[in-house]
Amino acid sequence: MALQLPTIFLTFLSTVVILASTTAGQPTSDDSDYIRTSCQTTRYPETCFATLSNYSATVQRDPGRLAMVAIHIALQHANHTANYFSNMSRNTDPDNKTDNKTESAALRDCSEVMGDAVDEIRESGKEMRRLGWTGESVRFQLSNVQTWMSAALTNEDTCTDGFEGVADGDVKDEVFGRVAAVVEVTSNALALVNRYADTVTG
Ligand SMILES: *[C@@H]1O[C@H](CO)[C@@H](O)[C@H](O)[C@H]1NC(C)=O
Ligand SMILES: *[C@@H]1O[C@H](CO)[C@@H](O)[C@H](O)[C@H]1NC(C)=O
Ligand SMILES: *[C@@H]1O[C@H](CO)[C@@H](O)[C@H](O)[C@H]1NC(C)=O
Ligand SMILES: *[C@@H]1O[C@H](CO)[C@@H](O)[C@H](O)[C@H]1NC(C)=O
Ligand SMILES: *[C@@H]1O[C@H](CO)[C@@H](O)[C@H](O)[C@H]1NC(C)=O
């Protein structure tokens, strides 16, 4: 699935980044507590707080903004990881007879499904950005976001499948570690979207 939605999403990204760098006021400890409390409802609360606490002044105790920032963070992580794996798989030399073909094929597949996850997370961010602007109900739009974030999580989970037949080693360890980290931020973003959706009645 290749989704093309650069403009709106770039607007979303720059809004998050601008809000984060200029911040309408200094973060207060209440803002920070809000993030900590919200993170308690996620599966990886420590990762959640570590990745989102810098945005407390942007979030300002708003569950919708928190979900949006979490999606932005998940997107950055997934995109970076997809690029990284793609580069790793390119660097396996096709003429090198001792190169493990299973391993490089697994890397390539992993990079592809991670790329699909990136598209789905990007689409989620776009939908968040236009909540209430499409004529559809916000609840319906949020259900789309939930669907895409769940799909992204599933794609990330399948990323390591191709490594089942690959011998243990540095590459495999590195891939599993990186995938696990992306799964954490994506799972957290989905949990925060779910939490936000619970507050929306319209
Ligand atoms: C949070 O901000 C501090 C200070 O600007 C920075 O050193 C740190 O790397 C940031 N953490 C994250 C996860 O972005
Ligand atoms: C993903 O990474 C590519 C390559 O570094 C970059 O050009 C692109 O802007 C990134 N996209 C997002 C949404 O971060
Ligand atoms: C790709 O991998 C090579 C070799 O491992 C490395 O030198 C290079 O910096 C990497 N490029 C990117 C964009 O990660
Ligand atoms: C060939 O691949 C193996 C396994 O990845 C690696 O250890 C070795 O350095 C490579 N040889 C060359 C000449 O690139
Ligand atoms: C390549 O992977 C297979 C399957 O795990 C393994 O049996 C074999 O030892 C590996 N070869 C190298 C050169 O690492």
TrEMBL record:
Presence of keyword Membrane: no
One GO MF term: enzyme inhibitor activity
Keywords, in A-Z order: Apoplast, Disulfide bond, Secreted, Signal
Domain of life: Eukaryota
Gene3D superfamilies linked to this entry: Invertase/pectin methylesterase inhibitor family protein
Any one GO cellular component localisation term in the record: apoplast
Compartments in which it is found: Secreted, Extracellular space, Apoplast
CDD domains: PMEI-like_3
SMART domains found in the cross-reference section: PMEI
InterPro entries with a match to the protein in the record: Invertase/methylesterase_inhib, Pectinesterase_inhib_dom, PME_Inhibitor
Signal peptide start-end: 1-25
Residue stretches making up the Pectinesterase inhibitor domain: 30-192
Family named by the database record: Belongs to the PMEI family.
Stated name of the protein: Pectinesterase inhibitor domain-containing protein
